[in-house]
Sequence to fold (255 residues):
Amino acid sequence: MMAIRVLFLAILLASPIIRVARCQSDSGAEVVEANDEGSDLGIVGEDALEYGDGSFSPASGVDTVCVFPKNSARLIPAGEENELLVGIKYEGESNLNVLAVKASVHLPFDHNMLVQNLTAQAFNNASVPPSTQATFPYIFAVSKYLQPGTFDLVGTIIYEIDQHPYQSTFYNGTIEVVEASGLISVESVFLITLGIALLGLLGLWIHGQIQNLSKKSKRAPKVEVGTKSTDASMDEWLQGTAYTQSLSSKLKKKK
Fold:
């Protein structure tokens, strides 16, 4: 199945019958056609969507693929524009009218936790005839305040056939949000400032400990205790006792 989708995408990007609609920020539309058949695919910018808040089932005969043409690693810088290509292959009987492409960012462990609804791209007169392949570039940007990390991106293309609305999910996978390119980020400045403050507090604590040790060493002067007077009084007290007599007898014997 994966090989079939990759083959379809390769054919989609190289086929001479592909019609490519370029997204623009203004209300105009730029359309590139590789053949002379069929009507133009128009883009009307970020208008309100008639079916933007609905949830519909996919139509039979419609197959979609998605590729990040300039970002195979799917690294999404926060606050910067990113582009992906939505490929649609239609094998029906009536014309398919593309209404919009939209996407949303969710937490990877719980899709019920919505992080951000991305800008929807509305189309006007974007008709895809039967047995036709078409690509639609979708430009989006996640919030510049979104913390770096892994998130799930869910992309949906909304269309109608015979005035009945449908939608197909063209991408439901992970993206890696990274910091926008720049000299230094606000978070980095905060961490550097916090590190400097901690080092300063540690230096003050070490300096205080050294001062306390030096003060204690100065408060303990050396005291010498004499023993001569004590020895003299002890000799007078022992005179005439058996202890002094035994000592004098021992001295005489040594002589």
Summary: The radius of gyration is 43 Å.
